[in-house]
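Input set for joint prediction.
Command: fold jointly, output C-alpha cells.
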Amino acid sequence: MPHFVFVNDSLVPADEASLLIGDLAIQRGYGIFDFFKTMDGEPVYLDEHLDRFFHSAAAMRLDAGVNRVELKQRIGALLERNGIANSGVRLTLTGGYSPDGYSLAQPNLVIHQSLLAVPVSAEPTHSIRLMTYPHLRQLPEVKTIDYLVAIWLQPLLREKGADDVLYHRDGVIAECPRSNFFLLTDRDVLVTPGTNILKGITRMKVLEAVNGRLATEEREVLLAELTSANEVFITSTTKHVVPVTEVDGVRIGDGRIGPVAKWVSAELYKRAAPYGRR
Amino acid sequence: MPHFVFVNDSLVPADEASLLIGDLAIQRGYGIFDFFKTMDGEPVYLDEHLDRFFHSAAAMRLDAGVNRVELKQRIGALLERNGIANSGVRLTLTGGYSPDGYSLAQPNLVIHQSLLAVPVSAEPTHSIRLMTYPHLRQLPEVKTIDYLVAIWLQPLLREKGADDVLYHRDGVIAECPRSNFFLLTDRDVLVTPGTNILKGITRMKVLEAVNGRLATEEREVLLAELTSANEVFITSTTKHVVPVTEVDGVRIGDGRIGPVAKWVSAELYKRAAPYGRR
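C-alpha cells >
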C-alpha cells in the first residue's frame, strides 16, 4: 500500500505527489525544508524543528500558508493516515509557481514521510572518515534545499575513500553537508563552530546535554586543531552521533571511538527515549 | 488551448507537466538547464546552446538520456506541436528520483516553451541600474538551476532602486545572475570577465561581432574600473544587449546609452536576423 503525502492541503498517494514544472524549486533551486524523526509514532523535538522551519521560511521570504497549530494538525493527520511508527518527516516549502520563472509566488508546502530506522544501540557502532573541502554553503544559517556542491562531490568522496565531506573556508571549519561538527581538544574542551553553519537540533541537544559536565566553546575551529584533537564527531537528526576517526587520511586521537562520543550518544539517546520505546 | 511540454519522452499539456516530489531538484536543488529563443519558429544558435547543455550535464554528472540528434528531434516535435513562433525554450535536466533523496538517479528531462517577445528595435531602448553584491555563484561555469541568492536578493534590489545585481568577489567583477558583463574602458577597450562566470551564448556572439573592430580583453575586471568606464552593458539571450548607466548610484560615463552598446546591439540583431523575419 503506498503511503500518503501532503501537497499543500491535499493528502495524495506518494506515487502521485508532484509539483508542476513551473515551481521555483525545479526552475531555480529555491526552497527550504526541515526534517524530524518519529519514534513509536511520536515526533521527536517537533517544536524545535518547527521553530527552525518557520525561521528558514521567513529568512527566504516564503509564507508557509499555515501557522504552527495548522501545520501540527497536518503533520498529525499524515502520521495517522500512514501509520509508520519510526520515520523521518520532511517539510519542504518551495518558491511556488512563478509566472515569470523568477519572482517568488505562493509557496508550495509538501509534507513527506519515509521509513527511518531508530538506532539499535545507544552507543555508536561505527566510525567514519572525512575529506575536507574548501566551501561555505550559501546563506549557511538557513536550511535551504541547496545541496548542489554536496551532491556534486559524491564521486570525489568515493575516490578518496571518505564517507563524508567537511567544509571549511580558509582553514576555518564549518560543517558537513548534513551534519554539525564537534571536536574535543587535547585539553578536553568540546568545541563546535558557532557561525556560518546550519545549527542542527541534535547539535543543540548535545550542547544542552554536556552543559555543566564538560567545558564547551562555540567558536572558530581551525583545521589545524585536528592534529591534536582527542576526539571528533558529527551529529544530525538522522545520524545521531557519529565518531570520526580519520580526516584527509590523518588519524584523529588514537583512531578509535572515543569516550566522549560514546557518552554524548548515550545521553542523547536517553533524553530522546520518552519519545519512543527503547 | 494549453501548450505542451515534454517531460522525458511524453508530450503533456503544461497544466499536467510535473515532477514527483522525490526529484532531486525539489529535494536538493540539483539540476542544470539551458534556454534558447525561437524567432519565426526557428531556434536561434541552437547548436551553441546544446553544446553548453551537454557540457553542463556532464559537469554535474547527469546523463541526458538522449543524444544531440534525439534532443533536436524532441525540440522540433515540441515546436511543431505548440506552433508558437517567438518563444523561449528551456531544457531542464534534474537529478532524478533518488531512492535516498541524496544520491543521483536517472535524470528527468523537461522541455518547456514559453512566449517571448522578439525585440522590436535593433538598438537598445532603455538602460538599467545595477547594485553590486559580494557573491560568486557555486560552480559558476556550469548553468545549474541554483539562483538561491539571486532570488533572495530581489527585495533588496527594489529597496535600492536597482534593476539587477552585479556579483563580485573581493572587488573582482563576475556577472549578473542571468547576464554577462561588459565594460568599455576609457581607452575604448571592451573588457569582460573570463573566469568564474557562466559563459553566455550572447557574450560569445558579442566577442565574435567585435573581433577585429574593437580591442577586447577577457580578463579580471575590477569594480574600481567602473568610475572611469566609458560604457557598461550586460548581455543575455532574453535581454540581448542592455546598457547600464548607473552602478550603486554612481553614473557610468555620461549617464546615457553609449555608441558601442548601440552598435553591438544592432550588429547582433543583424547576425541573428536570418533566424527570423526582417
